[in-house]
């Protein structure tokens, strides 16, 4: 049985105690407020970041993990006899995937597999959880790679946003879409599609947002042996009804809070579901 180390980045948005329990290495992206830099989840929490945004009236920049940081990680685990499976956030959202690939060339090892998840936040998270399960079942790194690549198109998400300010300021959504979202209590339901954030639906009010997210979840159908993640950041209006729905239907789920890097772009008041669908 191969010794396999799973490595991911801090946009994974799965509770750290779960990742530590399953021996996953999480490399942090950088959060930059002007000249001040913080390691995501190490030097700064999501709440501290949001407080700082309010205090300074300034949205920080987020920076990819550099190749040298991946090289240090690779060298450490290769010396310990591991094969390394790396799962990163979408290459369309960050240069982190490219850094992981450059580092692989630098260390010149065939015992490293790098996968572009084409996702972010808990979409990346459900793939990492799947990789953990496959590793613990004793599959080889190549077998795990094959199954993860086959699963990527089936990762589904629907997130309701109360405020789109951060998404617009950070350039993740156009100002035109933002204006629509701010008029008459419109809630945008966003998804990760083709590696990028995209508008899925426009609904009026939080109740309709909840209804839309649940309908999407039921229509797509989740694979019962895969993780469902309830992701949230300071949003009770959507969070509480979704939690009640999952529990009333005996659907096992992981309760996860948005991390710093993703929180920079999402802002507060967002909540939704991530899962692997049946079709």
Describe, in short, the structure shown.
This protein has helices at residues 16-21, 46-56, 67-79, 96-107, 122-136, 141-151, 165-169, 175-182, 206-220, 236-248, 260-266; strands at residues 4-9, 24-27, 30-33, 36-39, 61-63, 83-88, 112-116, 155-161, 186-193, 196-204, 229-233, 254-257, 270-276. The chain has 279 residues and is an alpha/beta fold.
Note down, in words, how this protein is organized:
This protein is an alpha/beta fold and 279 residues long. It has two domains: 4-49 and 59-153, Rossmann fold; 154-276, Hypothetical Protein Tm841, Chain: A,domain 3 (2-Layer Sandwich). It contains eleven helices and 13 strands.
Fold topology:
Blueprint: E1 4-9, H1 16-21, E2 24-27, E3 30-33, E4 36-39, H2 46-56, E5 61-63, H3 67-79, E6 83-88, H4 96-107, E7 112-116, H5 122-136, H6 141-151, E8 155-161, H7 165-169, H8 175-182, E9 186-193, E10 196-204, H9 206-220, E11 229-233, H10 236-248, E12 254-257, H11 260-266, E13 270-276
Parallel strand pairs: 1-2, 1-6, 6-7, 11-12
Antiparallel strand pairs: 3-4, 3-5, 8-9, 8-13, 9-10, 11-13
Helix pairs in contact: 2-11, 3-4, 5-6, 9-10
Which key features would you list for this structure?
279 residues, alpha/beta, Rossmann fold, Hypothetical Protein Tm841, Chain: A,domain 3, 2 domains, six-stranded mixed β-sheet, four-stranded parallel β-sheet, 11 helices, 13 strands, 42% helix, globular, DegV, lipid-binding, DegV_domain_contain, lipid binding
């Amino acid at each position: 049985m191969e010794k396999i180390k799973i490595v991911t980045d801090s946009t994974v948005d799965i509770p750290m105690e779960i990742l530590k329990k399953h021996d996953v290495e999480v490399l942090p992206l950088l959060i930059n407020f002007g000249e001040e830099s913080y390691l995501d989840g190490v030097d700064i929490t999501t709440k501290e970041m949001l407080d700082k945004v309010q205090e300074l009236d300034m949205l920080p920049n987020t920076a990819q993990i550099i190749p040298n940081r991946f090289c240090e990680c690779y060298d450490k685990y290769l010396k310990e006899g591991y094969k390394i499976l790396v799962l990163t956030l979408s290459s369309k959202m960050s240069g982190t995937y490219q850094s992981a690939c450059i580092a692989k060339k630098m260390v010149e090892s065939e015992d490293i597999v790098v996968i572009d998840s084409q996702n972010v936040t808990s979409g990346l998270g459900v793939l990492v959880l799947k990789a953990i399960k496959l590793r613990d079942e004793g599959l080889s790194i190549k077998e795990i790679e094959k199954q993860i690549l086959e699963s990527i198109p089936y990762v589904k998400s629907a997130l309701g946003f109360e405020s789109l300010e951060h998404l617009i300021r950070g350039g993740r959504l156009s100002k035109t879409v933002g204006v629509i979202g701010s008029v008459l209590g419109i809630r945008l339901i966003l998804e990760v599609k083709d590696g990028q954030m995209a508008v899925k639906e426009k609904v009026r009010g939080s109740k309709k947002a909840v209804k839309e997210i649940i309908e999407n979840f039921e229509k797509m159908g989740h694979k019962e042996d895969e993780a469902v993640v309830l992701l949230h950041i300071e949003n009770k209006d959507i969070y509480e009804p979704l939690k009640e729905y999952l529990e009333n239907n005996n659907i096992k789920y992981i309760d996860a809070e948005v991390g710093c890097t993703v929180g920079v772009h999402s802002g507060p008041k967002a909540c939704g579901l991530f899962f692997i669908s049946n079709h």
